[in-house]
Amino acid sequence: xxxxxERFVGYVNEGLLCSICHDVLEDPLQAPCEHAxxxxxxxxxxxxxxxxxxxxxxxxxSLLRPLYRYMxxxxxxLQLHCKNREYGCxxxxxxxxxxxxxxxxxxxxxxCSNAGCTVQIERxxxxxxxxxxxxxxxxxxxxxxxxxLSAEDTQHNCVAELRTELELLRSxxxxxxxxxxxxxxxxxxxxxxxxxxxxxxxxxxxxxxKSQMSRMMSDVRSLMAAERQHGQEMEQAELEKREL
Length: 244
Description:
Layout: E1 28-30, E2 36-38, H1 39-48, E3 65-66, H2 69-77, E4 79-81, E5 92-94, H3 95-104, E6 109-111, E7 120-122, H4 126-132, E8 137-139, E9 147-149, H5 158-243
Antiparallel strand pairs: 1-2, 1-3, 4-5, 6-7, 8-9
Organism: Jacana jacana (Wattled jacana)
InterPro entries: Znf_RING, Znf_RING/FYVE/PHD, Znf_RING_CS, Znf_TRAF
Protein name: RNF41 ligase
């Protein structure tokens, strides 16, 4: 939608009006047929149509172009009232600078910055509202350290608040101790399983070594027996040699 033509001071050229909403162009685009539209207006139109709303020539989003420079200059020089005129703002400025002014306008309706407060107030009156807002917060004057809302002043009890905080801390500490306990138990179980596994591996290795030792002893005994037999054969051969 464009800018309400009633806000403008003096005559506005018809060429600077949107062909769809008939208000003064806002963020304008131009079709090949030179008809101009607000960006939001023409995009909305082309969702359901494929032609120009003025002369019915076929157009597509890709064919839309920025407004001619001289038309943009004419548009930016137009003078108009601030949108907060009904609240008392008397500012009149160019279309080119109206957005910047309205972002900072003292008569703009803005929300209260206190959480929970739904009041909309003029920017120039915000400080005064914040001073009396029932949702404003402050630190407890008795030194308990709590931040309280003005509406809760009469219900605030330092002892009760601190007792509640203590209970919360105690519960949190118990939870953390339980978590640490479970974690330690889990680690111990993991280490125990690891040690049992290692012990099983070592036991298997020991049994394998025993088996190897047994085979080696058997081989040694066989070698010793063979050596004795060889010695006996040598002695017998020596005797036979002497006899010969």
